[in-house]
Amino acid sequence: MTDMQHKLHIDAGGGEGGALVALAGLDADIAGALDRYGPPPDRSLPASFETLARAIVGQQVSRAAASSIWTRMEAGGVTAIGGVLAASIDELMAVGLSRRKAEYLTGIAEEISSGRLNIEDLQEMGGEDVQKRLVAIRGVGAWTADNFRLFALADMDAWPVKDVALQEAMKILKSLQTRPTAEDMEDLGNAWRPFRGAGALVLWHLYAIEVRKVTVADI
Questions:
Q1: Structure pTM?
Q2: In sequence order, which residues have a C-beta less than 8 Å from that of residue 112 and are 6 or more positions away?
C-alpha cells in the first residue's frame, strides 16, 4: 500500500481514519460523488527529480503534448538529472522543450545535484514549507508545487486551484453555472481543510468519468 492509499483509506495523519471518510463527513456532495463513482485511484508518484521534471513539462500544455515531449525526452536520455546536466539547452530543445522549460529543468537539476535542494528533506517538512521551498526555484510555480506535494509527498491538503480539470469538476460537483476561478476554488476548498488534496483526487476522478468519458476500469 502506498503512502497515498494509506492516508486516503486508513489514516490521514491524525489517527482519525482515512481522508476520504473525513472529507465525506465535511461535504455531502463529496459523499455522494464517492457513492456514485467510488474512491479515486492511486495516483502516487515517486518523490524524485523525474516527477518534478514531468510536472514542468506539463505546465501550460495539453496532456497529449506533454506525453509526446516526455516520450521524446526518454528516447533522448534526458529525463534523469545526469542526462539533463549533460545536455545543452539546444539539445533539450531538440526533444521538444521550449527554451524556457529547458532552462528550468537544467536549473532544477543543478539545485538537486549541488545539494541545495534535497528532495528527501521535503518529505519531513510541512506542506506550506514545501510549497515555499519549491516555488523559490525558477520555473516551479504553485501548480507544479501543489501537484508534487499531492502525488509525490501524499500531502492530503495540497490544493492546485489553477488546474482547469479541477475547476470543471468542481462546477459539476457543486452544480455551478460557470467554471469557478482560482479565487473561487480557494474559497470552496476552505471547507475541506485539511483534506483538500483528497478532494482534488475525488474531483479528478469525477472529471475523468464525466468529462473525459473514461470508464472506472480505464482510470
A1: 0.91
A2: 49, 81, 118, 119
Which string of DSSP letters, residue by residue, matches 107-162?
A: HHHHHHHTTSS-HHHHTTS-HHHHHHHHHTSTT--HHHHHHHHHHTT--TT---TT
Please state the domain extents for the chain. 3-43+158-218, 49-151
> Per residue in 145-171, pLDDT tens?
999 999 999 999 999 999 999 999 999
User: All 3 cell numbers of residue 18?
Assistant: 482515512
CA torsion angle 63 210 43 183 (round to 10): 80
Three-state DSSP state, 59:
coil
**pLDDT tens-digit map of 45-63:** 999 999 999 999 988 888 8
CATH fold for the domain made of 49-151:
Endonuclease III; domain 1 (1.10.340)
The class level of CATH for 3-43+158-218 reads mainly alpha
Please tell me the distance from the alpha carbon of residue 149 to that of residue 131, in angstroms, as a whole number: 8
